[in-house]
Specification:
This protein has 346 residues and is α/β, with parallel strands linked by helices. The protein contains 13 helices and 10 strands. It has 3 domains: 52 residues, Multidrug-efflux Transporter Regulator, Chain: A, Domain 2, CATH 1.10.1660; 45 residues, no CATH class; 198 residues, P-loop containing nucleotide triphosphate hydrolases (Rossmann fold, 3-Layer(aba) Sandwich), CATH 3.40.50.300.
């Protein structure tokens, strides 16, 4: 792709900024940046465009929505207090987590000084979320597997479960929910973990209603379309009680802008929230080139070999298979309602 001298193409600009090319297009669509065009019509980012984009990325890190960034650009401070309060809460949660890590490292060093050598598993769990350091997910895989042992030690804040139809990913998700301490399953109907409908729960819980409204407002400012499926999902995500949440097809009922806004929202709140396992087949939810350190991908292979963790970079074992299981929201909408067959009783 030919671009003017001193300018970057979208791919190089995104890599320099640490975001995806899709994020740059979204900034452009919202009028926040205006890349120049090469003679052939290609987008190009010069020093001025890169500086503006870097400012946007920095504000996004602070928790500002794109609408709030636009207001800041226009000199309107509305919404700034809420965004800063959210970011402060996120940082305080990270501080508590880091304090727990420091404490666990100190205890490990004390044991090492007494001649007690830690195992690889002990060291791997030093970075675990508070209260999860001793959790090891281990169980015999259900049908359609043959009872092989499955073990997961490193539970990340965001965990994607991916696989083709008939691969068993829903069964894996349910067994994870049964095994993880304090976990709850949010099914396709978005029934709340306590068995009530999300409408009943919101009507009975003003505090939950306020949290859902707050999250929905942020998502709408980022381009999401308000809908019953979005509200139902947020009710499950914001409900108190479960220590881990497992969500069946998190993109269910959401259009493309809503999925993109939801993905950004989940990443923004990941380190301050309980672990989340989510089934997905959407590239808007699982954007492979944007997967970070707080995220993990679990693949259920089509041949029913045991599920495996997949590293998020081309060439890694299973990466191409994961990519082949994902589709854009538009393609997913064409196959809505197509699910794997499930035998009676399970």
């Amino acid at each position: 792709m030919a671009v003017p001298a001193g300018f970057l193409n979208p791919s190089d600009a995104a890599e320099r900024l640490g975001v995806s090319a899709k994020a740059l297009r979204l900034y452009e669509e919202r009028g926040l940046i205006a890349p120049v065009r090469s003679a052939a019509g290609w987008r190009a980012y010069g020093p001025a465009e890169m500086a503006r984009a870097a400012d946007i990325v920095a504000l996004r890190t602070l928790g500002f929505s794109l609408a709030q960034i636009a207001r800041v650009r226009d000199g309107d401070p509305a919404g700034m207090e809420r965004a800063l309060a959210d970011h402060q809460a996120t940082l305080e949660a990270r501080m508590r987590h880091l304090a727990g890590v420091v404490e666990r490292i100190g205890r490990t060093r004390e044991r090492l000084a007494r001649g007690q050598t830690p195992t690889i598993g002990d060291l791997a769990r030093l970075q675990a979320q508070p209260g999860e350091s001793d959790v090891v997910v281990a169980f015999d895989l259900p049908w359609p597997w043959g009872g092989e042992r499955f073990e997961l030690r490193d539970v990340r804040p965001l965990n994607y479960i991916v696989g083709p139809l008939f691969s068993g990913k829903t069964r894996l998700a349910r067994r994870l929910c049964e095994t993880l301490p304090g976990a709850a399953f949010l099914d396709l109907d978005r029934t709340m973990p306590d068995g009530t409908s999300w409408i009943e729960r919101l009507e009975a819980d003003p505090a939950l209603r306020a949290r859902v409204d707050r999250a929905l407002a942020w998502l709408v400012e980022d381009g999401a379309v308000p809908s019953d499926p979005m509200t139902a999902l947020l009710a499950g995500l914001e409900a108190e009680g479960p220590r881990v949440l497992v969500v069946d097809m998190i993109e269910q009922g959401l259009d493309a802008p809503s999925q993109e806004a939801l993905s950004a929202h989940l990443r923004r709140r990941a380190t301050a929230s309980r672990p989340l396992f989510m089934l997905t087949r959407s590239t808007a939810i699982l954007e492979l080139d944007a997967v970070g350190a707080d995220e993990a991908i679990i693949l259920c292979p089509a041949n029913h070999s045991p599920p495996v963790r997949v590293a998020p970079y081309p060439g890694a074992a299973g990466y191409e298979t994961v990519a082949s299981c994902l589709a854009t929201p538009e393609v997913r909408a064409r196959t809505r309602g197509v699910i794997a067959a499930r035998p009676a009783g399970g």
